[in-house]
Amino acid sequence: MRFRSQFCLGLALSLSLSLLAPLSASVSAQTPVPTPAPVPTPAPRTSFRDVPADYWAYEYISGLARFSVISGFSDGTFKPNEPVTHAQFAAILNQAFMSAQPFQVPNERLNATQPSTPTFADVPNDHWAAGYIAKARTAGFLSGYPGNQLKPNQPISRVQALISIANGLGYQGGSMAELSAYRDAAIPEYARPGITAARAVNIVVNYPALDRLLPNRPATRAEIAAFVYQALVKDGRAQPVAVAGARWNKAPITTLPTAAEVFSFSADGQRLLALTTDGAKLQVWNTQTGALIKEIAAGDQTHFDGAAINKDGTTVAAIAQTSPTNTVELAAWAIETGQPLWKKTIGPATSTIDGSQIAFSNDNQRIITFVETNRDGTSVPQLALWNTANGEAVQSLDTSGRFTISPNGQFLAIQIYPNDSSGRVDLWRLNQSGIFEYARTLPPEDVLFWGMNMVFRNDGLLNVLTRSPYDGLLVTWNPQTGARVTSTELPADRSDDAIGLSPDGDSYFFSGTVARARLGSVKTGEVQDWPGGYRVAFSDRGNYLALTNHNPYEVGLALPTPAISIYAKTAH
Q1: Is 563 within a domain?
Q2: How far apart are CA 360 and CA 382, in angstroms?
Q3: Directed axis angle between helix 221-234 and helix 86-93, to 10°?
Q4: 224 plus 273 within the same structural domain
Q5: Is residue 250 part of a domain?
Q6: What backbone phi and psi angles, to 5 degrees, belong to 134?
Q7: Residue 352 sits in the same domain as residue 214
Q8: Are residues 196 and 274 in the same domain?
């Protein structure tokens, strides 16, 4: 077992070096890299052009980048699917566990089995990763192959990386019986105790199939980022992140002490914009820590009616009305400074505006607004697009209604209600001039439009949920052709007044005074009773959920202190 443990530890160390060095130095692991003199460096890059917000390992990669454990190539990429060598892995172990804070070697490692020298026969002193390898070996992360070999430039397998982290950090426990959860039975015998321990502390991340470990496949840069990030979570140095394909956890990761009915996530789910119920403030919260990042006040005689945060989590925009002139305006602010970027007048209103909607396009280039004013008892709706950079009007559409925009920005889906018992969805398509044109109307469903919700999925398809008094029908449409893809019945109730659909196409949330709160899965059919919730929002990847804890319009009940709870999908 000693040799096997050393083998895995050696592989893990090498992988750390390979992942970090190419990202920091943007060179091959085989090329010696001189140690540069310390120089001031800009804030670390936390996003990469080949790691979009809907990529399965986005949170892990961006999280480690924030901690300066990893960085990217000079061209702004991360290359998440490339393998990691033993040397690269050693560099990552150093950055994650031996640089950010003192690392305590477990007592059981301070024995005669420790190598007398921190070097390997095949790691010369001038190797770019020699220092990282020596530190990691001394700390117990590395032992290597027979003959005092590390094979620093060979890729490390998933099982070797996991065992290296588990052994190096002294993980123990778990049940061998739990390994039966994996459908692939190719876990080497020597690796089973280490994988069991790694699984027990939740550092094992499998994507896309949670029940396949793929132990002998070379680990990718994204997978190593996930393993290391989960180890930091175990150590209490990082917040848990949602795991793609996992199950919703009923325990919130954070609870934000604010009363709000309008709120939205940044693309990565790390920030939440909340518009307070009284319309007086915009608040930006860190969903992982619960910290209030920025608060923007509406000002005297002004109230906000709609607000949104852009996908990068750097800008907020809001629709506001100012008395006594009743002027309706659109404005944007930089989150970090709280300073206004611009303000534009939408138009006059002779009474309080109601039911406004605002959203950013996925590329952050456009702001879409829907404003419905009430002038002398007549509803005057307006749907328009604006330039995010300067607030200039781009287009005013000859239609109106609640809307959603596709991930690629090519389609707008707009809800149209000609009367109380029916409705339709109109699709508008972006033309070559950057202007939306009417494309088609989706065929109406054979149900009363008791309520309708819709969301563009991450794959570009459109989910539309319609309800009769006692049933729900979720229909997936192809906006390119107008063809119906699937139809799924959902257990809706006529009292449901809180409805949410996730962009990943799987989760939905219903809540009403009779059936109460439920969180369901379209794919599995499972429906979980939920602690509560009135207003709801899903993150773009569908792995974070924000819920208000009560309905402010309920009467005769002891209502809890207003708050927004943030929930996540977790591996267990």
Answers
A1: no
A2: 17
A3: 30
A4: no
A5: no
A6: -60, -45
A7: no
A8: no
Shared-domain flag, residues 84 and 227: yes
Provide the pLDDT for residue 55: 85
Weakest-pLDDT range from 295-309, 512-526, 557-571: 557-571
- Whether 216 and 304 map to the same domain: the answer is no
Both 214 and 82 in one domain: the answer is yes
> For the CA atoms of the chain, what is the radius of gyration?
27
- DSSP-derived 3-state class of residue 112: coil
Residue 213 above 50 pLDDT? yes
State residue 571's pLDDT score: 54
Determine the pLDDT at residue 39: 38
CATH of the domain at 470: 2.130.10.10
Backbone angles phi and psi of 98, in degrees to 5: -130, 5
Query: Token digits for 217?
Result: 């496949």
Q: How far is CA 494 from the centre of its chain?
A: 32
Q: Which of 101-105, 187-191, 495-499 has the lowest mean pLDDT?
A: 101-105
Averaged pLDDT, 505-520: 87
Q: What does the pLDDT read at residue 531?
A: 84
Residues 220, 105 share a domain: yes
Pairing of strands 527-529, 483-490: unpaired
Characterize 109-148 residue by residue with b for buried, 16 or more Cβ atoms within 10 angstroms of its Cβ, and e for exposed: eeeeeeeeebbbeebeeebbbbbbbbbbbbbbbbbbbeeb
Pick from 108-122, 346-360, 483-497 the range whose average pLDDT is largest.
483-497
What tokens appear for 357 in the block? 């909607």
The answer to whether 180 and 174 have CB atoms below 8 angstroms apart is: no
Are 265 and 539 contacting, i.e. CB atoms less than 8 angstroms apart? yes
- In whole angstroms, give the CA distance from residue 301 to residue 320: 10
The pLDDT-based confidence of 405 (bands split at 50, 70, 90) is very high
474 by Cβ neighbours in 10 Å (0-12 / 13-18 / 19+) ranks as buried
- Indicate the number of domains in the chain: 2
Task: Encode 313-365 in three state secondary structure.
Answer: CCEEEEEEEECCCCEEEEEEEECCCCCEEEEEEEEECCCCCCCCEEEECCCCC
pLDDT of residue 558: 55
The answer to whether residue 18 is domain-embedded is: yes
Burial annotation 164-198 (CB, 10 A radius, 16+ → b, else e): bbbbbbebeebeeeebeebeeeebbeebbbbbbbb
Assigned domain for 252 exists? no
Q: Are residues 227 and 286 in the same domain?
A: no
3-state class (DSSP) for residue 412:
strand
pLDDT of 465 strictly over 60: yes
Q: Is the omega angle on the peptide bond into residue 215 within 30 degrees of 0, that is, cis? A: no
Residues 203, 23: Cα–Cα separation, whole Å: 22
Cα-based torsion angle of the residue sequence 408, 412, 413, 419 in order, rounded to the nearest 10 degrees: 170
Q: Domain of residue 287: give its range.
A: 265-539
Q: For position 4, what pLDDT does the model report?
A: 32
Predicted pLDDT at 379: 65
Q: Return the closest-CA partner of residue 366 out of 400, 383, 391, 399.
A: 391
Per-residue pLDDT reduced to its tens digit, 75-95: 889 999 999 999 999 999 999
322: which 2 tokens?
């100012």
Q: Where are the beta strands (DSSP E) in 174-309?
A: 247-248, 254-256, 260-265, 271-276, 281-286, 292-297, 302-309
Compute the residue count for the chain.
572
